[in-house]
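Page 47, continued from p. 46.
Same chain as before, 578 aa.
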Amino acid sequence: LEAVAARLKDFSRKQDGAVIQNLVLAARERLGKVLQRAAERGAVLEEARKRSKQVPRHSLGWGGGSAPWLPLDTGLEGEDKIKCQLAEHKAFQKVLRAKRPVYEATLRSGRALREGARLPQDLQPLEELLGELKERWDALCTFPVPHRQHKLEENLLFSGKFTDALQALMDWLYRAEPQLSEDAPVGGDRDLVGDLMDKHKVFQKELGKRASCIKTLKRSVRDLTRGSSSVDSQWLQRQVEELSTRWDLVCKLSLAKQARLEAALRQAEEFHTLVHSFLGRLTESEKTLKYGVFPEEEGACQQLELECITSLGEEILSTCHPDSVITIKSWVTVAKSRFQEVLSWAQQQGERLRAQAAALAAEREDTEQLLEWITAAEEALGLRDQEPLPEEQGGLCQPALSTSAPPQVFMEELNRKQPDVEKVTKSCKRKLAVDLGRRSSGKAQGTAAAPLGALEPQTPLMAQLLHRWQQLWLLALDRQYRLETALQRLRELEEFAHFDFGVWRKRYMQWISQMKSRVLDVFRGIDRDQDGRISQREFIESVLASSACCGGLEGAEGLELGADDLCPPQSSPPTCWR
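Result:
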């Protein structure tokens, strides 16, 4: 394209070459944008490929491969076997807890991939994969693992080992109590609070399954210690009372945490909605700033929204989970930085528009002043046109010279006003095609070039100014031409009053000698019928048609008078010029 454009420019006009160059530059800019978008798209695809590798399919395989850990031997009768199974189950729970960060990271990567997917055929497999992963994990955490531990504790209880069963339940309650503490942070972003809510639902299901075991243990201990006042019976009763107290506390804390999680989830949803709607409106405001001014009311509303986002973010950070602190702070920072960008751009746009408005106001004022001056000048020209021309005042040249002075002064005044008009009309576009011949002919005639003829006015006031200015120039030039013509006429009349044919003949002979011609050759050219004689009329017409040193009045009337005395109407050239 550039090579073809270069060849075209070699054979094109200057203005066409500029158009071709602009088209090539526009094409190059568009190509640069396409390459930039392609590079950005490649970076996004590479990031998506890395994230897709971070969603390991072996996580699903691990969930299915853990099945051998879960079966429960219902025929266990010995205490040692039950304790062994319980120890193995606790070890498996540790492995499960160690796998949970991997599961959460995988889930976050999958969600990021899902949000970045643009094609439906990419979105559906990701939805299915995430759903399958979450379903298997929930199925593993909500039923098999708690159910197995619950069964083991029941077997331990039914085997008569009340102390071990009681200790196992107390250990579980002691482990659960710190997780339900009111001081535990539950705030954060929407995804994290959703994960915390899912974990708490799993805990509540496990807590509900423990309720039957607690009731069975209480009933068994009550039956066992009924009517007995031994030390062991009293100790069991105290342990059961402590278990009941712990159980009631855990149930109360569980309900309180559920309420706090629900409030945190609503808060996170509100924060997410506020931030994304705020960023969306900022994007729309940027589009508005490209073509106009930023409304002050909208700026105040966005400032209020930013304050709401900031206060809500600080409120969330006061009870925020450590894993979500960076996320909340980053969202608040992004909102503030984007608002500052748009606000600074709006301020720059406002300053630029105010400067343009001031410039337009000054330009309008200058235009009106120029129009007033043009009106006064037109009135002055009209009054001068009503005055008689110098040739009507008499045949003297000195009054004519004094009368022609005002037009020169007026033209000088026009020339002094020309820069002011050019300054006012500098915002007008220039036409691509200009009549060069007309401009060159104007210069050849010794007059000023047509003022501002190649401009395209953008406003009616500017069009009026250009039209009035050009009309004033034409009127001034017309009056100057008429005055110069009258002055020339007066000069010719003055010269005719003192006409001397002898003096004129000497000048004519000098002119012939300057032309490197002979007198006989000149007169032979005048004698067209070749009879050796020329008439007076033929001689006068020949002199007037030539570039000899005589004016129209001098040649037409002076020669008739002078030649009539010196040359007969029909004579030979030697007779007339001896």
